[in-house]
Amino acid sequence: MTETVDTSKSELTGRGLTVRRVFTTEGVHPYDEVTWEQRDVVMTNWRDGSVNFEQRGVEFPSFWSVNATNIVTSKYFRGAVGTPVREHSLKQLIDRVVKTYVDAGTQHGYFATPKDAEVFSHELTWMLMRQVFSFNSPVWFNVGTSSPQQVSACFILAVDDTMDSILNWYREEGLIFKGGSGAGLNLSRIRSSKELLSSGGTASGPVSFMRGADASAGTIKSGGATRRAAKMVVLDVDHPDVEEFIETKAKEERKIRVLRDAGFDMDLGGADITSVQYQNANNSIRVSDEFMHAVEAGNEFGLRARITGEVIERIDAKSLFRKMAQAAWECADPGVQYDDTINDWHTCPESGRITASNPCSEYLHLDNSSCNLASLNLMKFLREDGTFDAELFSRAVELVITAMDISICFADFPTEPIGETTRKFRQLGIGYANLGALLMATGHAYDSEGGRALAAGISSLMTGTAYRRSAELAGVVGAYKGYARNAEAHQRVMRKHAAANDLIRTYHHNDAAVHRLATQEWQRGMQIGMANGWRNAQASVIAPTGTIGLMMDCDTTGIEPDLALVKFKKLVGGGSMQIVNQTVPRALKALGYQDEQIEAIVEYVAEHGHVVDAPGLRREHYEVFDCAMGERSIAPMGHVRMMAAVQPFVSGAISKTVNMPESATIEDVEQIYYEGWKLGLKALAIYRDNCKVGQPLSAGKGTKKDAEPEKVIEYRPVRKRLPKKRPSQTVSFTVGGAEGYLHAGSYPDDGLGEIFVKLGKQGSTLAGVMDAFSMSISVGLQYGIPLEFYVSKFQNLRFEPAGMTDDPDVRIATSVLDYLFRRLALDYLPYEKRAQLGVFTADERAAQVNADYASAPDVDLEGLRTSVDATPRPAVEESAQSKPELTEAHSSTELLELHLGKAADAPLCMTCGTKMRPAGSCYVCEGCGSTSGCS
C-alpha cells in the first residue's frame, strides 16, 4: 500500500456514522487512480474445444489477472450477452452493488451526513476495485438487479416430525438451490425407524427421507445457472438411527466400486452415477461431550427416542466412534460437529439451540436463519518490509462489517421464517482469504507456533474489530432485536473471546503488534457493547472463498495453506504457463536470502515443484514451503492445530477439510476426531486420498453418441510368462558409492518382463532382500501390472545409500530403488508416459531448457524468468516428430499431478472440464470459477 492512511477511528454523532477516509484521496475518484484496459473474454472447454462463454471488449484495471477477469465477466456481469443491457465493465458491476448499499445505508440512518455516505461509497469502491475484499457471490449475482436481492450464501433450515414439515423441507431446499446458495439442517427431530407412529405403524426414519431430498438436489443442480446444489445433513449421536446414518455413504461408495468394476461409468458426472444415492450432501454427526467422555472411558451410551426422550437402546460408545471413523476413512463422511462446544459459544441460547450448519460447516446459528459473507485478502495488508499492517486491517474490517450489516436492511430471503430470523438476529460472516500465502511470505511455516500465533492474532483482531463496530452501530441504529433476551449470554461469549485473546503467545514483533491492537479492540468493544448492546448476534466465519478468492487473485483460499509451489497462470491474449508462486521469492527474501540465491532456488522449484535439495536453501527453512499436497505435505495434525489456534476468535466455525494420506489408518481418523474435540474445534471433516472412486481424472468425456464406447480395462490374475529365450540387458550402476548390477529381461514383442538386482555380497541380508524384491516385481510385471505404476511408487523413495550416481541421465538418486525404477522408465517406457512421471534423459532436459529460454516474440519475460513450460519439448525436429506431446495441464491441480506423477483427488468442473482445487471443505474451478459449495 502506498496510500496515506488516516488512522483515526470513525466517530459517532448519535445520528449516524462520521466516516473518515482510509484508502481514498479527497477530490479523486477511485476509478481515476488506475489504468483501465479493454479485454476479450473467451472461455472454452479444453476437452472438446467448445466455447462456454464469450464477451469481447470488457473493461478492467490493468493489474487484474486474466483469470479474475474471466470469472467476474462470466459469473457476475448481468444482462443477456450480446445485448446493450449487458454489463461490460467492472465499474458497472461495482457501482451496481455499492450504490445499493449506500442508498440503503442512507435510508436507514447509518450516515451522519451525505458527505459521509459519499466517503463510504468511495472507500468500498476502492477496496473492491483493488481486490482488498469481496462480498460473497450472491451479492454479485443479485444486488442492484431486478432479481430478488438475496445476499446470503448460507442457510440453516428446520424440519419437524411431521409429513408437512418434511415436504416443506424439500421445497425450501429447492428454492435455495435455485438461487445459487446452499443449506443445512438437522434431522434429529424425525422419529427413528425403531419407534412407532401414532397410527400404530413403524416410522420410516430420517435416512429414508434423505433419499427424496438427495434426488431433488441432484435434479435442481443440473438446471442451475450459478452453481451446483450444496447441502449439509446433520444427525445427533444419540438418535436411534445413527448407525444407519453413519454408514449410508460408505455403503454407496462400495456400490460405486462394484458398478465401476462391472463397466459402468461411475466418474463424477458420469452417465451412471445418478443411480447412487446420498451423493449431493455432506453428512455430519453431532457429538456431545457426554458421548466423547463415554468414548474415553469405554462406557456404554444411550440412544434416545425422539418424542419421549427415553433411552431405548444402549450401545458401546467406543464401537460407535470406531464406525464413524471407519466410514469417514472409506468415503470422507460423516464429519463431526462438537455440539457442546458450539452451544457454549452461542450468543443467543435463550432463543434456541444451534443444531446444524451450512453445507461447508462455517456458519452455525439458529434454525431458519441465514448469513451473508465477505472475506478480506490478507496479502493486501502485508507491507514491503514484511510486517502486517494491523491498523489498516482494522480500518478495513470496520468498513466491510458496516456494509454487511446494511445489506440485511434491503435483503430478500427465500422463506419468510428465514427472513424473520435473520432480520431479528442480523448474523454476519466476515472472514479472510490468503492466510497460507501470508504465512509463507512472512517466513512462517503453516504448521509452526509462529504461524499459528500470527493467524490467531489476525483472527482475533478481525472479530474484535467487527464486534466493536457492531457495538457502535447498536448505538446508532439499535441492537439486534433478539439481544435483550440474550444480553447476558452475548456478554459472556464476548468475555470468552477476550479471555482467549489474552492467552495468545507471541513470538515475533509482527504477531506481537497484531495481538496488541486486538487486545485494545476487545477492551474497547466490551465497553461500548455493555452500554449499547451489539447490532449483530454473530460477526465472523472462515469461509471457503472459492470463486471470490479467484476474483481477488488470491493464491490460497480461506484458512488453507498453499496447494503447491507451482501454479497455472493464464496469459493475456490466450495460452497459459507454469510459474512459481510469487510468495516463494517473497518468503526467501523474508528469510534473508540474497537475490542470486533466490533466483537459483526459484529455478529449482520451477523444475521440480518442491524445495527439497534446492541449491543454497537451508534445511531448517524447508518447512516454510510445505504445502497441502506435493513432495512435502503438511501433516494432518498440522491442519487441526491451525484450526484450533483460530477457532476461539471466530463466531462461527471454519470451512476446512483435513487432508490425510492414502496410507492413513482408521485409528488415525479416530485420533483426528478426538483431538478436534479436545482442542475446542466446532466442526471437523477429513479426506483420505483416493478414498472415493468418482474423483480421479478421467479421459474422453463428452464424446459423440455414436462414438465407440470407452474401453474398460480389467486386470485379471493371468500370468504371461517369458519365453525360454528372451532379449535382456545388464546395467552396472553406482548410487552413493554402493555398486550394483541391474539385469532386465523383455518379452520378444517388447515390454519389460523381469528384473534381477545384484547388490551386496552373496549370502548377505541385503542381497537376499533384493533377490526377493526382484522376484516380486518380476511376477507382478508378468501378471500385467504396468511398469509405470511401479515407477510412480518407487521413484523419489528416500533411504540410504543415496546421492550421486555414475549415470548421466540420472545424476542424483534418493535411494537405490529411486535410481533403478527411473532407469527402467528411461529404457522401457515411451516418452509420453515418462513425461507424465517427470522422468527425462539428460538430452531431453537440455532440450527443455533450450526451448523454454529461446528468444521468441511476445514472451512474458518476468514470468519466464521464474518458470518452465509444463510441456517438455525436444530440441531437434526429428525428436519432436517421433515423440508424442506431453499431456497438457489446464489447472494448478493438473499441473501438480504432472509433478507428482499421480492423480489428485478432486472432481472435474461441470462447466469447463478442468480439475478443481480444494477450497475449504468445497472445491473451486480455476478456469471458470464454479464451486461445489458456498462462497
Short précis:
This protein is an alpha/beta fold and 935 residues long.
Please describe the topology of this protein.
Blueprint: E1 11-12, E2 17-18, E3 36-44, E4 51-61, H1 66-75, H2 90-107, H3 114-129, E5 133-135, H4 137-142, E6 154-156, H5 163-178, E7 182-186, H6 206-223, E8 230-236, H7 242-261, E9 281-287, H8 289-297, E10 300-304, E11 311-316, H9 317-331, E12 335-338, H10 339-344, E13 356-357, E14 364-365, E15 369-377, H11 390-410, H12 416-425, E16 428-433, H13 435-441, H14 449-477, H15 483-502, H16 509-532, H17 547-551, E17 566-570, E18 576-580, H18 583-590, H19 595-608, H20 636-646, E19 657-660, H21 666-678, E20 683-688, E21 728-735, E22 738-746, E23 752-759, H22 765-782, H23 787-794, E24 803-807, E25 810-813, H24 816-828, H25 831-837, H26 842-853, H27 861-865, H28 877-882, H29 892-900, E26 917-919, E27 922-924
Parallel strand pairs: 6-7, 7-8, 8-9, 9-12, 15-16, 19-20
Antiparallel strand pairs: 1-2, 3-4, 5-15, 6-15, 10-11, 12-20, 13-14, 17-18, 21-22, 22-23, 24-25, 26-27
Helix pairs in contact: 2-3, 2-11, 3-11, 5-6, 7-9, 8-9, 9-21, 11-14, 13-18, 14-16, 14-20, 15-16, 18-19, 23-24
Cofactor: adenosylcob(III)alamin
Keywords: Cobalamin, Cobalt, Disulfide bond, DNA synthesis, Nucleotide-binding, Oxidoreductase
Domain TSCPD: 723-827
